[in-house]
Amino acid sequence: MATSTRAMTIEYSDLPTVLIFTDDVQGSVPMRQAVEDAGGRIGAVVSIADAVERLAVQVKLAAVVVDVRGDSGPAFDALLAEIDRGASRGSFAAVVVVPMELVDAAAAAIGSAQVAILCEPTASERSAAVTAAIQKKTESLADVGSGLKELADEVARIAKTLATLASEDSGRGIGNGNGLRAPAGQTSDAALIRAIIRVRRLREQFFPADLFADPAWDMLLDLTAARLEGRMVAVSSLCIASAVPPTTALRWIKTLTDGKLFERVADSNDGRRVFIELTEVAETGMLAYLAQMQRILTLRQ
Known about the structure:
two-stranded antiparallel sheet, seven-stranded mixed β-sheet, Arc Repressor Mutant, subunit A, 49% helix
């Protein structure tokens, strides 16, 4: 086994090959262990500076793992772009692990559904993501694990509910000056939504935070309020608004985007940032829900 501070090549038996790109070669032991636990063969552990060159000469590859602790600047951006292209072509699947300060950069660069972005993951989340990446390649990119399917099913249920609300109020909307449409006779108030969010956070003073965890709803509320305020929301900000660990939030954002409730909008002023907005159906459904809530509150006064 040959080892250097720039790259470490490891030879194992004929198993699915995985490349690990990192800015801390010596600190990559947990990720190497995750690959081995997932049944993969580590082709090499390579520095971010040498990653694109190493990726270009790899002939047979099941998955790529990027595990960084800091910002390598242009080298990191170039690697993410190359990984996104390769994953989009179906050449491999990938896992990208970043700290919170690089979530926006990773989200802006990665568009392929075959790349999972993790932030501050647990050991089990890291292992599950690597296993899924390897199996996506060796099992014709099939969905792996009931957890992903359950998440997709839940998003589909939310989408159906919002579409029903939007349909019930279609044709009865009036403009509110922010591009959204509220049911006739009702005013959508961002302050009301912010109050709802504050009340939801209040529960954490009396009960465990994960007891009522509902990241999809928290993100829907935050995006609706931001839209009414005329404010854009970056991926990192939405992760914080979800009130769950970043990796969980990123998984929800991806699934809600795939489910046509969220949409990505590039930041014209910053190529390393992407905004998340509600789709038209989600916007209309949320406004219909808020209008019904306001009617109920009015009747109780």
